[in-house]
Amino acid sequence: MSNVVLIGPMASGKSTVGAALARKLGRPHIDTDHFFVARYGPIPEFFAEHGEEAFREREAQVVAELLDSPRPSVISLGGGSILSPEIRQLLKNQYVVMLDVTEEQAQARIGDATTRPMLTKGGEAPVERWKRIYAEREPLYRDCADFVVSAAEATVGHRVDTIVEAMRKGRDRTL
Fold first, then answer.
1. pTM of the prediction?
2. Is 31 helix (H, G, I), strand (E, B) or coil?
């Protein structure tokens, strides 16, 4: 049995959907951002002190460690985790679900973006930066994903049901 890994852009609902999916599957839910914070402190402060490159290195270590856990889990990755070639390689042995989101949905969820360091740098409006980051990463998300949950499936419950149905139809070994 493998992990179910949720990937996608910032504000796509990976943490919320991951927790609900884990409850439905009877598995633990692990949010890599929360794990990172527990180990290294708040992400915005880590970014400010050490920079993005150091953050990505530590993030890749955390993700690799969590994906290697012997207990199958639902794991929500940070939006930029897929930038790491190492992580993309590790995801090949997992059941990977991309949660998609529209610009309008993301804008409603990111607010002032103070807890999202990738959206607060460069002087751009957070939603404009989000759009640019999403455009750059979308091909990686789609390449890594075994299944994509449409942005039109906006409720948490519907997203969870869609994922479970896709798992049953596709790769039953993940259940």
1. 0.88
2. strand
Token readout for 135 is 């455009």
Q: How confident is the model at residue 2 (pLDDT cuts 50, 70, 90)?
A: confident
User: Residue 111 has what pLDDT?
Assistant: 64
Which residues are documented as binding site?
Answer: 11-16, 33, 56, 79, 116, 137
Residue ranges for the known binding site for substrate are: 33, 56, 79, 137
Cα separation, 163 vs 16, whole angstroms: 14
Rounded-to-integer distance, Cα 104 and Cα 63, Å: 29
> From the annotation, which residues make up the binding site for Mg(2+)?
15
Angstrom distance (rounded) from CA 158 to CA 154 = 7
CB-based contacts of 157, cutoff 8 Å, min separation 6: 20
Q: Which two tokens stand for residue 12?
A: 């796509």
- Write down all domains in the chain, each with its CATH number in brackets: 4-174 (3.40.50.300)
Binding site as annotated, residues for ATP: 11-16, 116
